[in-house]
Automatic annotation (TrEMBL):
Residues 149-338 form the Peptidase M24 domain. The keyword Hydrolase applies. SUPFAM superfamilies: Creatinase/aminopeptidase. Keywords: Aminopeptidase, Hydrolase, Protease. Transmembrane segments: none annotated. This is Xaa-Pro aminopeptidase. Pfam families: Peptidase_M24 (PF00557). GO terms for molecular function: aminopeptidase activity. It comes from the Bacteria.
Length: 367
């Protein structure tokens, strides 16, 4: 790794860097430059940069902007970052061949990147869809890392929800999940929990309320740039017939979605399947309006959220997180589309499951 200023910043190679991964991703970006007739591309979002750099962490605050921008030209990759970040990034985060350009902490990243570009660089926003397509099909190293993260997140949910009781506060559930996510070297991007009295909320930020007899927990955790998304339910004192019926019907909706997730399908076509499936399975024609339905996953929680106007094609080795939901029910796992079909990544063998359309799907844990 090279730096263009500030003597004393040493060069350290990432011992786990995958050169094949770097080469493939760089080739995909070069193809975008070739098609658009540009000599360089300026990447500015966490999603694009962490994908391209193999999971490098370029944030400080999870709620803040990245602390670097990346200029990819036909010769090399230039990371422009603040002087108080450069040493750590070089030592701990970046591939060895990235050229680092430190900027005073009060300086402008974009001004420096502009001076480095041989001509006006292509802006990331102008090729947003092309970049999504470039990261759709996960490489083997990415698949392995992603599957491991999803297994660990699923295991954390099993550990925590197996030990909770009706009097446990929602915030205590979230705190325990956060501790496990951080301990696995990941970042808790989303932690949701609702007890029985708040089950009407689709995105329930945890409160001090007790769980009561039934609860949901959601974890979205990021490691090496990739985000695992998992929802689980726990119940005390047994189930009612209405609960079992609703849970079976939402699993049937998900089965329809997964069956439509095949190579060559388009996301807008899958969205039509989602809308019709809710009505077929007794949730009504407008249920899809009450919560987003998920979509491709990987380097963003959803990449993108599916709508009637997202025409992206589905490809092999692409990850998805669909999350159909209804009143008091939701199902959500991260899956991978393989040549053999759908492979569920967020699996913990200790969690109870039932077979739905040939896949083992999670049911509510009875404690």
């Amino acid at each position: 790794m090279t730096t263009t200023s500030e003597p004393g910043l040493e060069s350290f190679a990432d011992p786990v860097a995958d050169l094949d991964e770097r080469a493939v991703k760089r080739s995909r970006v070069m193809s975008i430059l070739d098609r658009t007739g540009h000599d360089s591309l300026l990447l500015t979002t966490n999603t694009a940069m962490t994908w391209y750099l193999g999971g490098s962490r370029l944030h400080i605050s999870l709620a803040g902007d990245p602390i670097a921008i990346l200029l990819v030209d036909r010769e090399r990759d230039h990371l422009v970052t603040f002087n108080n970040e450069a040493d750590r990034l070089m030592r701990e985060e970046l591939p060895a061949d990235v050229v680092v350009h430190p900027v005073p902490w009060h300086g402008s990243l974009h001004d420096v990147a502009g001076r480095l570009a041989p001509s006006r660089p292509l802006e990331e926003a102008s090729v947003r869809r092309e970049l999504r397509e470039a990261r759709q099909s996960l490489l083997p190293v990415e698949t392995e890392q992603y599957a491991e993260l999803n297994r660990e997140v699923a295991g954390a949910l099993t550990d925590v929800l197996s030990a909770v009781r009706p009097h446990t506060a929602e915030r205590d559930v979230a705190a325990q999940l956060a501790a496990r996510v951080i301990a696995m070297g990941a970042e808790p991007l989303v932690l949701l929990c609702n007890g029985r009295e708040r089950s009407a909320f689709r995105h329930p930020l945890p409160t001090a309320a007790p769980l009561g007899r039934r609860a949901m927990a959601v974890v979205c955790a990021r490691r090496k740039g990739m985000v695992a998304n998992v929802t689980r339910w726990v119940r005390f004192e047994g189930s009612t017939a209405a609960e079992r019926d609703a849970e079976a019907r939402i699993a049937a909706v998900e089965a329809d979605i997964l069956a439509a997730t095949v190579p060559g399908a388009r996301l807008d076509g899958i969205f039509e399947t989602i809308r019709s499936s809710y009505e077929v399975h007794g949730f009504g024609a407008d249920q899809w309006r009450l919560h987003h339905q998920g979509g491709p996953a990987g380097y963003a929680g959803r990449d993108p959220r599916v709508t009637a106007s997202t025409g992206d094609p589905v490809v092999l080795n692409q990850a998805f997180t669909w999350n159909p939901s209804g009143p008091g029910v939701k199902i959500e796992d991260t899956v991978l589309l393989t040549p053999e079909g759908i492979r569920v990544l967020s699996v913990d063998e200790r969690w109870p499951t039932v077979e739905v359309n040939g896949l083992m799907r999670p049911v509510t844990l009875e404690v």
